Amino acid sequence: MAEENLKKNNSAALEAKNISKSFANKDVLRGISFKVKAGDGVCVYGSNASGKTTLLRILAGILQAKDGTVKIGGWDIKKSAEKALPMIGVISHGTMTYPQLTVEENLKFFADIYNLSDKKERVTEMIDEMNLSKFRYDVVSSLSRGTRQRLAIGRAVLHRPKVILADEPFTGLDSKSKQKFIDIINKLKKAGGALVLTSHHVELAGKCCEKIVVLDGGKFSAEADIGDDDVRRFCEDHSASAKGEI
Amino acid sequence: MSNSINIIKAIFVKDLINELRSKQTFASMVVLSIIIAWIFRLTSSVIESAMVSIAAAVIMVSVVFSSILCCERSFAVEHGDGCMDGLLSASADRGNIYIGKLLFNVTMLCIFDCVMVPVVCVCFNLTPAGNLLKLIVILLLVNIGVSAVGTLLGSIVMSIKSRSSVLSILIMALIMPMMIPAISGLLMVFSAGADSGMFSAGQSFSEIAGMMAAYDAIFVTVCWLVFGFTVG
Amino acid sequence: MRVTVLITSFVLMIASGVIANTKGAIEPVVRNIVYIHVPASICSLVCFGGLFVFSIMYLIKKKPIFDYLGAASAEVAFVFATVLNITGMIFAKAEWGLWWTPSMRLITSAILWFLAAAYLILRSSFNEQGNKANLCAVFGIIAFVDVPFVYISARMMRDIHRPSFSFDSSWQSTALGLAILATIMLASTLIWMRADIEKLNEKLN
Predict the structure, then answer these.
(1) Which segments of chain A does DSSP mark as H helices, in order?
(2) First-last CA distance in chain C
(3) Any chain B CB within 8 A of the CB of C130?
(4) Rounded CA gap, B196 and B183, in Å?
(5) d(Cα B119, Cα B35) in Å, to the nearest integer?
(6) What one-character-per-residue DSSP string does B137-199 give?
(7) Does B16 touch chain A (CB under 8 A)?
(8) Which of A234, B61, B134, B193 has its CA 20 to 30 A from that of B160?
(9) Interface pTM, i.e. ipTM
(10) Residue C20, by phi and psi: left (phi above 0), alpha (psi -120 to 50) or beta?
(11) Residue A2 in contact with residue A88, Cβ under 8 Å?
(12) What angle do CA C60, C65, C70 make, to 5 degrees?
């Protein structure tokens, strides 16, 4: 139904309107609005404590915004959460995996949570695709950071989401795994998916995003196409760290 | 509905596997209860006539302190490595997370009781004297009540540094109304009679069980309803 | 407005005291502690009710003022529960020769005190302010739901707190009524003032 919503109306895969959030009466996000169409990728750039993680957590349905709405594939994340949430895949600072469970058990757990009809096949497919076959029966606590991050990516795309929200996804990955992640994201985008990621690695982000927005003082202070020259300079010029405020 | 049952079952099984592998929580619970039983036994050796009352107290104290360990640990597991965020972004109904955790905590306490109660009976030289079914009913109702409150509070204290101490204060303040009929019931089971010490005569077992069941039903419902506000 | 209410409550308290000391005196003199004990008991329950209402309002409306009012209600409930327990112990010692015993009313008073104390401990334990208001509101609701069970379960205990005397003149009932009204007015003003202080604290921070 949501896919029909996307195709017929050409509505955005993700639409955020007027998102505001405050912690202890301090505004962290102020009136954030943006759209990401199917097949597009947006990189959110910002200095530390600019609110990137908070924004991503609100888009993922983990935190409640003070004001504003988030729609995934046309479905409101608050009012139609049971339809919107299965369309989101989240990659975060933490790998969201259980250290005492094996790689296979972690994926099986999330397959159960998402109520996948082809649980076993999909888990095996993810293990193969993320090169985790060698570690299938190993507990996560025994794995390296890079391997855990690959598992986290596998967990995030296990249920074939339409939107990927990734918070610093390149952290801890070697160059091969970084490329693997970029390939998976680009494949997802070709199939009609969308991407919102936060990263300081604008060069890498440029391989899977078309647009970059700078989050500064709780608002989007600037945006540019990633194809533009010297995007890094652009980002630094528009963020607080460059202005010496942090 | 079937999706909710799947999620609850998945969380329950995941927590059980977690505990079977780490064995941290259960071992601590058992050792703690043995220490409590021994301390009370040693200090009560001068008051032979009050053995039954003291044994009932030991059982309650063991269940309460062990539930604190269990409930705290069940959420500590989720807060390492952002696992709770993974659950929240996947599950529309946060109440499912609460029910899954509640079932796990109740199961852990029931398994714990199977070890703890025989230890207490051995220490204090007691038998349930043909009241085994009543004992099981009382302990099950206590486990559900303590877990209902403890699961919610376990989630609340995750944002705090001194989790264990604050959790123990919060749990004990809330479960006192349930402890009174529970102790009265345990005294009945161990044949001390309901009219014992501070407890008034005339309470039947069904009245006691009914009161505890009402407490459990209301607190499971209320905690399930408000759980969503404690996460995210 | 607050000053008016405060002054009125003090006037009513003085009136209650004057009546209690003259026409409404109970013999022996220690029993006159009932003019403080009973209003403290009623007031602490009213404050718990306030905590419940403000907690629900905060979870629905998410306005900080309800959080401040809830916290203030818990503090005032704690104060009156302390007065309740101390006056109860003084009365128990004089009347029955025991400072404290696990009987029905005494357990009830003690648990109310514990619930208020637990809320305040929880509130003071947060490092980051982020979700403090939500979590305290949840605990406020659960604590209030616990209160009826406190009363029901305490009925299972022997009650030495049986009324050993009753009022035999309308002056005594009047004095008690005035004391209850004055205490509730005082509690409302204290909650109001405390919530304002909390609001100013947040602004300064």
Answers:
(1) 2-9, 52-59, 81-84, 103-113, 119-129, 145-157, 175-190, 202-205, 231-238
(2) 28
(3) yes
(4) 11
(5) 11
(6) HHHHHHHHHHHHHHHHHHHHGGGBSSHHHHHHHHHHHHHHHHHHHHHHHHHHHTTS-SS-TTB
(7) no
(8) B61
(9) 0.86
(10) alpha
(11) no
(12) 80
- The answer to whether the CB of B69 falls within 8 A of the CB of B76 is no
> Is pLDDT above 60 for C78?
yes
Length of chain C: 205
Q: Is the pLDDT of residue A11 over 80?
A: no
C121 against B194, higher pLDDT:
C121
- H helix intervals, chain B: 2-22, 24-43, 51-79, 83-90, 95-124, 132-156, 163-189, 205-226
Distance CA B88, CA A96 (A): 11
Distances (CA, A) of B114 to A182, B119, B140, B150, B225: 53, 9, 11, 20, 31
Distance CA B179, CA B57 (A): 10
DSSP-derived 3-state class of residue A8: helix
Q: Can you read off the two tokens belonging to residue C147?
A: 């209160």
Which secondary structure element, helix H or strand E, spans residue C75, and what is its range?
helix C64-96
- For C37, counting Cβ atoms within 10 Å of its Cβ (0-12 exposed, 13-18 middle, 19+ buried), the class is buried
How far is it, in rounded angstroms, from Cα B8 to Cα B100?
Answer: 4
Subunits touching C (CB < 8 Å, at least 3 pairs)? Answer: A, B
Q: Do you find a cis peptide bond into C28, omega within 30 degrees of 0?
A: yes
Residue A7, pLDDT score? 41
Separation CA B33–CA B39 (nearest Å): 10
Interface of C with A in 117-156 (CB under 8 A): 128-130, 132
Q: Which neighbouring-strand residues pair with A35?
A: A15
Residue for token pair 């929880």: C122
Say how far apart CA B218 and CA B223 lie, in whole Å. 8
pLDDT score for A245: 44
Given a cut of 70, whether residue B208 has pLDDT beyond it is yes
B133 interfaces chain C, CB cutoff of 8 Å: no
Helix or strand (DSSP H, E) at A33: strand A26-36
CA trace torsion C32, C33, C35, C39 (10° rounding): -160
Whether chain A has a CB inside 8 Å of the CB on B87: the answer is yes
Record: contact B85-A96, CB cut-off 8 A: yes
* pTM (global) more than 0.80: yes
Q: How confident is the model at residue A110 (pLDDT cuts 50, 70, 90)?
A: very high
Structure tokens at C148: 């009826």
- Give the chain B residue nearest A105 (alpha carbons): B14
How many whole angstroms separate alpha carbon A94 and alpha carbon A212?
24
Q: Is C83 within 8 Å of C40 (Cβ atoms)? A: yes
Nearest CA-CA partner of A215 in A51, A31, A19 = A51
